[in-house]
Amino acid sequence: MAGINHAPPPFFKQGPAPLALLIFYIAISLALFVVDLRFRSLELLRQSVALIIDPVQRVAQTPGSLVDHAATYLQGLHNLQQENSQLKHAQLNTAPNLQRLAQLEAENERLRKLLSVNEREKANGQVTQILYTARDPFSRKVIVDKGQQSGIVAGQPAIDETGVVGQVTRVFPFSAEITLITDKDQAVPVQIVRSGQRSVVFGLGNGQLELRYMPANADVQVGDILVTSGLDGVYLPGFPVAKVVNIERDSAYSFARIFCVPVAGVENFGEIMVLNPRQPLPEAPPESVGRGSDSGEKNGQRPKKKRAAKGN
Amino acid sequence: MQPTFSSSRILQPVRPWFIFFSLIMAALLNFLPTAQWVGMPDWVALVLCFWSVREFRRVGMGWAFMLGLLMDVADGSVLGQHCFAYVLLAYVSAALSRRFLWFPLAQQALQVMPLLLATQVVQVLMRMAVGAEFPGWDFFIGPFIATLLWIPATFILLLPQYRPEEQDPDRPI
What are the residue ranges spanned by the domains of chain A? Predict the structure, then answer.
């Protein structure tokens, strides 16, 4: 420590002592850490820094995308023809359902009107390209190539061709951060297709998901498909989320441990679709006062569920 | 300054733009998709540590803080996480720089290893303190690879400062 710690002669101007500087910077770092984690009020700072480093990041992504392009270019005519015929085949297979879809939707709308039930929301969105996976090993996030300039806002759900991928959590001027459903802090309200039971599925951080707080005797089987229930006002109902792969029922605990894997290629690279934000749900009716312990319990549950649904 | 303590060659003074350039290149290396690979070193930490040892009057904690902020935003981690680790790294390597430079390169690398490892450990501790999962032991391979890279990094980063071998005898140095 002899190098810089002893007091400098007064005729050399060196600025504040290193220890003072260290304490100063560490205090700022810790303040940033706490404020960003607890209050999330530093998005403007994040956005401005992101704007500065955006060109550097794009440059850094070029070699990777060049290799990708070269690979597809060299893949050859034969492969492409094969893929083309496969796709045509698949299209033909789904044609009977698709062709009647328009008619079915119209019929559904008419019937809903007859029953005076609200119309289903249509799913629209914009296709984005995944730029890269965020390097942070503690979370599961990807960065896509559209942001504020394309009108993306935080909270929008993202899907790929098979199911839900995640949710937009931060928006930068030219890119957006999508937290995958496998992230530890992410939760999706779901419904079991077979039984219609509602629950919330949580990310585990290791590529799997867990269906928590289901009673040990709950009607869940391996192979059950979970779809979004739409109760959160974020995800539209009916998108596949996960598939149950393992159930541990231990009589010592009141809850079963139910593990699922995501249906979508959550950890893969490629293109994903960011769905437009949903229309706001109607206001929840006010809680009636003085209904005893039952209402108290409900009161306690509601904000918790809302927070879980919002995820980050 | 000499490249190593036993060398008789005297280096030219460092050019500030080269320090800036090397730090930006390190950030670029960190942004590459290869950063996802297991055992990839944190290039910014390595280059920052190098300049903090060599030129602690030019590259100090202010630089470390700004680079930390940059990496926090780029990684999507919590703001302040890299800042804290890098500021600490810059301080300790500057404080120990006189000692480091008295060792041959291989032993320098050995002494730098704990610093680089501490940079990762500090980040893990910070995140685990606020509820993140342990990211796995392969998160700690990077610093060891970075230690091996200390010798080539010293060579490359000092290249612009070498003088030509054949010197004009009339020159004073």
Answer: 16-73, 78-120, 122-278+305-312
